[in-house]
Amino acid sequence: MEEPSSKRPRNSLNREEVSIIHDGNHNNNQIVTLYNPPSSNNPNANTIRTSSLASPTMKLSGHKGSIYTLAYDPFGETLCSGSFDSTCLLWNASGNCENFNVLSGHKNAILDCKFTNNGEKVITASADYNLGVYDVRTGERLKRFMGHEGIVNAVGVAKDASPCLAVSASDDRTCRMWDTRVRSEVGCLEDQFQVTAVAYSNDGLTVFSGGIDNCIHAWDVRQMKRTMTMKGHTDTITCLSLNPKGTHILSNSMDGTLKTWDIRPFVDSGKKRHDKTFVGGTHNAEKGLLNCSWSADGTMVTGGSADRIVHIWDELSAEELYSLPGHAGCVNAVVFHPKENVIASASSDKSIFVGELS
């Protein structure tokens, strides 16, 4: 006989079972199916799950150095990680999250990576002064963009514009625009200071940059000139991220705060563009370019933090919703899954955690 469990049994549903929600009118009952992945060998097979991951929390290992950047493809099928070891690893975003490809060719650390908006290519920014364009399916490097005269800190792509367009930020005090159909740059925006963060507007007509001058600048791509400067941070800006609607931009800074800014064309003259401030994350003496990102519905924000904790805030109230431990080093990158209630984090401890948010 088996010993009785000390734990209270949990009432669980089989795959075929559904919940019926009554709204008071018996003719308008809603049938809600709960996702429950099949698993014959799993003793907890009847536990209700909220994602397609094999386990609620998973640790991915494979990089030989600190991991600086993470990116999901737009369809939530692939996760890309870039590291100090000069490679990017491609992982399945569901199931057991197997590593299925290695993107190599850079000669120094990879500091940022982005999927094109059709999910077919990965664009990488590296400390070897170059950018790489890789085919996701084959892992082959299709192009190498050369032109920067300093470390390339960040790369950005436009959500709704051509998948061929990208913009990069560098220590050579420029943002350069690229087209994967062309070999050389198609535009150059010159700043007075090193540029450490960059983002495209959704329509690809505006570039946002941030750097060691603690300011966020907006540039008109058609006129190739600066149109707006937003001040509020007191230290270097390490990352910029546009919200899904394209109305606000999120910034992470070495002053220990994340801030959101209203970037719509017309804002009341009496209202400042700075919107909210999120506190709780930290930066340390490493002065790493810690990232920041939005959830797919724009209701939550997160960012890297040197205290080894993944912090997630509610965008509306600016209150911290989650404080997730587990990493043994500085958390450099945190990204939300575009389709599921899943978050991925990368750290200087050479590991990636992927887990469900309850």
From TrEMBL:
Repeat region (WD), residues: 60-92, 103-144, 145-181, 195-229, 230-264, 282-323, 324-358
Signal peptide limits: none
GO molecular function: RNA binding
Pfam families registered for this protein in UniProt: WD40
InterPro entries in the record: U5_snRNP_Component, WD40/YVTN_repeat-like_dom_sf, WD40_PAC1, WD40_repeat_CS, WD40_repeat_dom_sf, WD40_rpt
A GO CC term assigned to this protein in UniProt: catalytic step 2 spliceosome
BP term (GO), one: mRNA processing
Alphabetical keyword list: mRNA processing, mRNA splicing, Repeat, Ribonucleoprotein, WD repeat
Protein name according to UniProt: U5 small nuclear ribonucleoprotein 40 kDa protein
The species this protein was found in: Skeletonema marinoi
